[in-house]
Amino acid sequence: MKELLSLLALAALLTGCTPLSPSPHGDVPKSDTVTMSTQFPVYDKDIDRIQVIIENGGETNLNYGVEWAMEVQQGGSWKQIPYAEGYAWIQPLISLMPAGTYSYYVSMDMLDYDLKDGTYRVVKEISGEVYTAEFMIGESTVSADSPFGYVPLEDLPAVYTRENAAADGVVLMHPDGTFENSDRMETFLKDYIRGVDTQIRFAHYEPGNENELSLTDVTVDRRLGSTRIRHTYDCTRVICYNPYSYTHYLRYITVDDFGRFWLSNTLETAEHSENSELLYEISEFFGKYSDWADTVREYTLSTYNGIGAWSPDGLRLVESSRDDVLHFYVNIRHAEGGEIGYTANLLDVKPAERIIDVVWQDNTVAVLVCSNQIEGVQYYGGDDTYTYCFYDTESEELLRTVVSAEEYRFDENRNLIIPQ
Question: Cα separation of 157 and 163, whole Å?
């Protein structure tokens, strides 16, 4: 026995790794009411973080903290993967109501381990019970560079055919109105209403130009409860006079009275083109499935109550609750990671009475549009006026205000215009 242990120690020394400790949990039975799973079944070994989803199918609240553990299957049994030095858990308590869903990320940087092909599981204690989410590391399109399985648009070849798109899981819309990979749309909307970060890619082409695809990427991500939808349209692979691409950040998926799906900054699907993007691909498909329109509409209206918008670069959110009148919240995401937030108000700004919209002058200055209520006073021949408050989110100060009887608009270069 001593010789065997010596041989194992020598093998560990030669391979440069320490044997992992056995799992204290062993085989964990599945629950009938609580489900914990990873977003995808298989990940590439260079993956840097994995999204885990908890679903409460029971009748009582689930309570848990943020801590988790990772284990790997070796020799038919589970082994504990050690944490890297320097990490410590904070201690907030999270409560998940019945029929609720909660998603979180496990970061590979927190582990002292190099991922290799094999079977793994995330382990978490929830309401005094242990739950696991198994996944595999192996050949997969889900990687650090493509966390939802789609290669970045800029890395696609200049000639990207419809056969390529179909093989890559892109929702391909044919000129006759039929689709390929339409199941991806249902998965995308399901993830949205579950609060799960997700992405979908669309492509379509005109008759006679089968290999000239225009592409649309839609990515939903949430940090500290702030939903951000990144919409990118790319027609650089279409031979035309002015191939271009642009990116727009929005906040909700809304549904209008015709059952069309929009990405929008307001719950009412704003009239201004800067505040919404029509997802006609989804609209065409889900016209046959009205239940999805009702489900998404109900989710958005019941979950969100804010008025606000993301900055053009997608790093700053200014948001005001409909109930707070003149208070607003600023969330700033740092490009290198992390974020901060603070609250402010316009209580001293007269004649402003209520924040009704938010638009951006540039990446740091937000314009809070306020309605005015001045009894017995007519302004420029009308009763309705607006106060536009230019607020610098970097210096945290109000720069100026403009009172106008007209609503703002955008010019052909997407510049904000406020009629004086």
Answer: 13
pLDDT in tens, 88-131: 787 778 999 999 999 999 999 999 999 999 999 999 999 999 99
Laid out side by side, the sheet with 306-310 consists of 306-310, 316-321, 327-333, 339-345
Contact 418, 405 (CB under 8 A): no
Q: What is the pTM of this model?
A: 0.86
For residue 84, give the DSSP letter. P
Q: Which residues, listed in sequence order, are joined to residue 123 by a DSSP beta bridge?
A: 69, 132
User: 3-class SS at 267?
Assistant: coil
Q: Is 233 exposed, middle or buried (0-12, 13-18, 19+ CB in 10 A)?
A: middle
From the CA atom positions of the chain, what is the Rg in Å?
Answer: 25
C-alpha closest to that of 297 among 269, 272, 335, 327? 269
**In this predicted model, what pLDDT tens digit does every residue of 364-415 receive, in sequence order?**
999 999 988 654 444 333 457 899 999 999 999 999 999 988 888 877 777 7
